[in-house]
Write a structure and sequence with these properties.
Layout (H helix, E strand, L loop, with lengths): L1 E3 L9 E3 L3 E2 L18 E2 L12 E2 L6 E2 L5 H23 L7 E3 L5 E5 L4 H17 L12 H12 L11 E5 L9 E9 L2 E8 L2 E7 L4 H7 L10 E5 L4 H21 L1
Parallel strand pairs: 4-10, 9-13
Antiparallel strand pairs: 1-2, 3-6, 4-5, 7-8, 8-13, 9-12, 10-11, 11-12
Helix pairs in contact: 1-2, 2-3
Length: 261
């Protein structure tokens, strides 16, 4: 262990853990291939005829010297445990009445027994960890200092704030799509409005890193963590993953061609 400053509680001159998971361990179940390797994809690293955009580590993604034992094992650990229970309980629920198609022919699954605080903070803890990580896989996530500090305090104080604060829209990948991989987060900052998309083992999480306007809240209420105990998760269309990766690779090729001009 190294002596330093904890990123969460900001305690200085404290022992820091040599391994802190950036993506919770439970999200790694089922991700290993026959060679016991993980499948991690970085589409913007694509080079024709090579595999730079694929990473196949044998261990889960973790980093050292970020958090003290209490922050990692107790604060973050409890959030991970609660998030795991919520997701696994709903993953195992295949009641037909929980699936429906809306008037735009978009499929949804209703996730039940959602604890607003536990679900929201559990997901925000992943976003925050990707933002403080030094791993190349998460280098795109560059939260502004204000947003990073706001989320840090929410996690430290176990305070999820209001529904419109830092909402998260969760999606499910279609059952025919490739699910057993993690794609590096895509981050966007448009005129001070931050967004982050993270795809993990069958889920797509879109973090809206700001406060929703009243009109937005009324539209998105059933799709974001709220106090109803229910969340309507859209099931992405077939081959969403393939198109998503292809679009990033095409954008990468265009950037490379522009540099060569």
């Amino acid at each position: 262990m190294k002596i330093g400053k904890c990123k969460l509680c900001l305690s200085d001159n404290i022992e820091l853990l040599s391994e802190s998971h950036i993506i919770p361990r439970f999200f790694h179940y089922g991700l290993k291939d026959d060679k016991k390797k993980y499948n991690l994809m970085m589409p913007d690293k694509f080079i024709e005829g090579k595999r730079q955009h694929w990473q196949n580590p044998s261990g889960a993604m973790y980093e050292g010297n970020l958090l003290c034992k209490n922050c990692d094992n107790v604060i973050i650990g409890s959030l991970e445990t609660n998030l795991s229970k919520i997701l696994i309980e709903n993953e195992e629920n295949y009641n037909k009445e929980d699936f429906y198609t809306d008037d735009k022919n978009i499929e949804f699954k209703i996730y039940k027994n959602i604890d607003y605080k536990k679900f929201k903070l559990g997901l925000l803890s992943i976003l925050w960890r990707t933002s403080i990580s030094n791993l190349e896989f998460f280098k795109e996530v560059n939260l502004t200092l204000v947003n990073s500090e706001n989320i840090r305090l929410m996690l430290l104080n176990n305070e999820a704030k209001n529904i419109e604060d830092y909402p998260i829209i969760s999606y499910l990948l279609n059952k025919v799509d490739e699910k057993n991989l993690i794609i590096n987060p895509r981050y966007l900052n448009e005129n001070g409005n931050e967004y982050c998309k993270l795809i993990i083992n069958g889920y797509v999480f879109l973090f809206i890193i700001r406060k929703l306007e009243s009109s937005e809240k009324s539209i998105l209420l059933q799709y974001i963590p709220n106090h109803s105990g229910l969340i309507h998760m859209q099931i992405k269309e077939e081959k969403y993953m393939k198109k998503y990766v292809q679009d990033i690779i095409i954008a990468t090729k265009m950037k490379l061609n522009e540099k060569l001009k």
